[in-house]
Amino acid sequence: xxxxxxxxxxxxxxxxxxxxxxxxxxxxxxxxxxxxxxxxxxxxxxxxxxxxxxxxxxxxxxxxxxxxxxxxxxxxxxxxxxxxxxxxxxxxxxxxxxxxxxxxxxxxxxxxxxxxxxxxxxxxxxxxxxxxxxxxxxxxxxxxxxxxxxxxxxxxxxxxxxxxxxxxxxxxxxxxxxxxxxxxxxxxxxxxxxxxxxxxxxxxxxxxxxxxxxxxxxxxxxxxxxxxxxxxxxxxxxxxxxxxxxxxxxxxxxxxxxxxxxxxxxxxxxxxxxxxxxxxxxxxxxxxxxxxxxxxxxxxxxxxxxxxxxxxxxxxxxxxxxxxxxxxxxxxxxxxxxxxxxxxxxxxxxxxxxxxxxxxxxxxxxxxxxxxxxxxxxxxxxxxxxxxxxxxxxxxxxxxxxxxxxxxxxxxxxxxxxxxxxxxxxxxxxxxxxxxxxxxxxxxxxxxxxxxxxxxxxxxxxxxxxxxxxxxxxxxxxxxxxxxxxxxxxxxxxxxxxxxxxxxxxxxxxxxxxxxxxxxxxxxxxxxxxxxxxxxxxxxxxxxxxxxxxxxxxxxxxxxxxxxxxxxxxxxxxxxxxxxxxxxxxxxxxxxxxxxxxxxxxxxxxxxxxxxxxxxxxxxxxxxxxxxxxxxxxxxxxxxxxxxxxxxxxxxxxxxxxxxxxxxxxxxxxxxxxxxxxxxxxxxxxxxxxxxxxxxxxx
Length: 699
Hints:
By secondary structure, the chain is an alpha/beta fold. 31% of the residues lie in helices and 14% in strands. Strand 4 (73-76), helix 1 (80-89) and strand 5 (95-98) form a beta-alpha-beta unit.
């Protein structure tokens, strides 16, 4: 019997209430079919500018023409977490790996410059690494998770090298050094050199090594240009049974705006979709970072945590692209390792930007605020002042052979990009930099095994065994402290979150749903991520979630459940009309244009009122703006009819909107300044604005 913990979803438009029934394979015939209706929908709203000229089929059941695939595991995302997960489960069943663009190149991992950290130096230890992680995270971290990651990290990093990742060795800088010894860098917040790197293109090298192994494994199939839009559940919504996608033409340069519905039936789905940098106008994230994993999981009732902690990387390149080159929408990152190698931040007058005890190597939240303050001072002195500061990298340049060439030697990728934009460190040029949205420390809550936690009934399932107390998680958004030591089942996890969507509610794993990497909130990062801990988290939880997924598959097989048949019975979440209709292309383009306009307004709203420095009044304005944009999105979807559901720009805008709502709500309910969340109203009296922040202004 396929009887698992029931995920209680939030109320959705047109959603039927569900009961906590036990679902068996013999009861499929009892699945109710929803009635269908067709009608023309049109709207003359000037804000949505969408006119439907074809019939909108609102049948929620799967059309016969929809393509279906079956697998044992589905992995959404091809960064370090997703590829690690795929490799770890591949020997136990068929794996389908979905990528919005091209596998290995459309996520943030490929752009990671600095490296992956692990306590490998003789003078280092997992305990020292854990101490630095907790300090950077303002002790909002879960100390149990921090200990696990720092203990398991070194072995997994060494395994990456065995997989073929060509990390930089000491011999690259010292002819007398051994080729076996990794060259370790120091980055902000680290008390020891512990960052393993491949020059300044570590993520690209890790992606290459993992992707080679993935492509050569007979049990893994890559599906490029497949955008996930909704999770599939069993008819009683007690467990995940697959995922629905939109498939686009193989040509990555295709201008096709309407996707083809595709369903993947699988008992195990791992979300490794990365972050949501696109909720801000300036980000180091690629265009596909639209918060997909969080939106998909929360629609099923998943709990989020730490959403207010949005990390802005202090040093994104603030120089325009070469003449005639179209902007990519992704800011080029100048790695923190550049400051670790000796570069200094200075303002337009040449004065030091970072004046605290750790200086330029302080945690990213402090450095970003220092830069924000410096830019604000510059702008107040002169409106014509640059909206950026500078990196003086002459100390790095002088570290090369015979006192020159050090920058190009240590950071060839960055040096090449700077030269493309007319900046030459070797001739003394300063590097213009400014903060850009870089990383989301919060996300979908998971347990220590990467299982997504949801607001569900308290029924205990037979998944897994009772563990020792140190392997359980009971987490508080405000403190991140360990729970009491009584023995309990891992399915009975109490999440103490004071956010608007989870006031002291019980949460337990949603059967068959896992998450790893940036889209998840494991408890590792707390209020601020320590530099280069992101790739490490993807490694550790990609593996841990894989181990849990294998156990879940074993249980499903033992119960004899045909998950493929469950997926065929499950309804579509919204009206897919697979038959082409007159005017479809025009409708799709109008929907796309309107969705992109809403996205731009959402980005401006978030940057103005929910950015590096916040105020209670600004957050309330952001909450109101998010509500207003939600209404406009509903109008766009209604006006576009069934075609709108297959327009990726609208789906991504809805994901961005859902993510922004979570961020604003969490920021309003954080009544203190901690890590990346900085509200000027809480700098003095901690109770100022408390009552207004208690309001749940975003539904």
